[in-house]
Amino acid sequence: MDTPIIDFVKNYNEVRTTRFHMPGHKGVSFLGFENIDITEVRGADDLSCPDGIIKKSEENAAKLFNTKYTVFSTGGSTQSINAMLYLAFLNRNSNEKPFVVAGRNAHKSFVFAAAKIGFQIEWIFPEKSNSICSSVIKKEDLETKLNSLKEKPFAVYITSPDYLGAVTDIKSLSAVCKKYNIPLLVDNAHGAYSAFLQKPFHPIINGADMCCDSAHKTLPALTGCGYLHIAKDDKFNFSENIHNAMTIFGSSSPSYLMLQSLDLCNKYISEEIKNDLSYCEEKIVEINEVLTLKQIKNISQEPLKITLDFSGVAKGGFEIAEHFRKYNIEFEYCDNDFVVFMLTAQNSAEDFERLKESIINLPDFIEKNEQNEFLFISGNQKVTIREALFSKSEEIPVEESEGRICASPTVSCPPAIPIVVSGEEITTEHIKLLKYYGKKTIRVIK
After folding, report:
1. Domain boundary among 240, 271, 302
2. Domain limits at 258?
3. What angle do CA 427, 431, 432 make, to 5 degrees?
4. 254-283 pLDDT, tens per residue?
5. For position 69, what pLDDT does the model report?
6. Can you name the residues that pair with 213 across neighbouring β-strands?
7. Do 191 and 317 have their domain in common?
8. CB 445, CB 420: distance < 8 Å
9. How far apart are CA 222 and CA 252, in angstroms?
């Protein structure tokens, strides 16, 4: 597959153009890549309204992901999340209250999008869950929720795969959404690679109307690279405003280093990724065999994620995580119950062997007398998310927050999932959960 953006920048650099334009380094090396860091000069196209090399590269990506439109994000999935919610918002019935039905494990960027765009959220909760990170919604849950509402939401919003590697049945949720003529939007930030597996499970393949991918999470792309995808049928005509939507929530000076990274990713996907993913999956099978011998549970349903479940042992995930650091292994996420590893085809054979060795040498664990019970908390929304986020606020100790109104969600990143949402009244149950996840302070409305 061709790489029009990379080819242009390479030529621009080789002809030694005198740069009386931004950026200020003028191609002079400081970190070592400045010579290929350019801006929207003549011929470089414009990400906000592409008609040249960027358009061609985005068309290449659309063919690879089998979409009507795939557009590049240089603001990660956050930019794409804002844009796809804005596009769905434009499609709403203006005579009805604007709101979205969403799985409760949504990333904080979804909550911030609600404040910026001006909609409310009707949370949908799973029948059961083992973490704030996981909220697998079944078709029965969604149908029951939609039937309970007096008005129709302008979108249904699901996060899949989630931070612990659980995968929602997008196909069944899509069937429900089609029945009610509601667009299904999916935060697929962790699953860009899923379109290229032997058994693909990408949301667009399974009926989502729009979804975002973080290229940088599971593909060999620079941090902050992402995609926004629109399904081939585009029955809600989202593609008409897609670049305008991305422009509203993105910088007017997109990184051409990131655009080149996405351009090269197209070539990698078209020529190498399927073989590389097969190799990676084989290595993960070997690791799972070691885990089985050690009687340690990997609860991830996602092929390239290993989520070790320590919820039933006396030592917590935070303490066990330090064992892996002794082997010079850094994981994606840990909390009291889980340690999460994200693996890709770019991990070396040595990486996989080191992980196996560290698992083999894990100490034996003493089981807890009692298992942790986790329940999502349905908060009492006292003011709108927008009102809360744009109010004067103060940071106070979590212990003193009961009865106060959450201003800005208190989250760690990862996983950046709010325990209390802006505008909700903080309860004793919230406080217990905040402390369980290690939160010491929270920002509340003054």
Report:
1. 271
2. 4-271
3. 115
4. 999 999 999 999 999 999 999 999 999 999
5. 97
6. 227
7. no
8. no
9. 19
Q: Is residue 375 part of a domain?
A: no
Q: Is residue 368 part of a domain?
A: no
Write down the H helix ranges in 197-301. Answer: 215-218, 242-248, 256-271, 273-293
**Is 219 inside a domain boundary?**
yes
First to last CA, the chain: 56
Q: Specify the pairing of strand 333-334 against strand 338-342.
A: antiparallel
1: its two tokens: 């597959």
Class of residue 197 by CB neighbours under 10 A (exposed 0-12, middle 13-18, buried 19+) = middle
Quote the radius of gyration of the chain (alpha carbons, Å).
23
- 182, 145 contact by CB (below 8 A): no
Q: pLDDT tens-digit profile of 97-155?
A: 899 999 999 999 999 999 999 999 999 988 778 888 888 999 999 999 999 999 999 99
- Which residues of the chain, if any, have pLDDT below 70? 368-375
pLDDT at 119: 96
Give the burial class of 366: count Cβ atoms within 10 A of its Cβ; 0-12 exposed, 13-18 middle, 19 or more buried.
Answer: exposed
289 plus 426 within the same structural domain? no
* Spatial distance between the Cα atoms of 121 and 445, rounded to a whole number of angstroms: 19
Distance CA 17, CA 26 (A): 10
Question: Which of 231, 256, 271 delimits the end of a domain?
Answer: 271
Residue percentage of the chain with pLDDT more than 70: 98
Residues 103 and 141 in one domain: yes
Contacts of 126 (CB under 8 A, 6+ apart): 103, 104, 134, 135, 136, 137, 138, 141, 376
Q: What is the pTM of this model?
A: 0.95
- How many residues in total does the chain contain? 446
**Contact between 355 and 287 (Cβ < 8 Å):** yes
Residues in Cβ contact with 285 at an 8 Å cutoff, skipping those fewer than 6 apart: none
**Residue 231 CB partners (closer than 8 Å, separation 6+):** 67, 68, 204, 207, 208, 209, 210
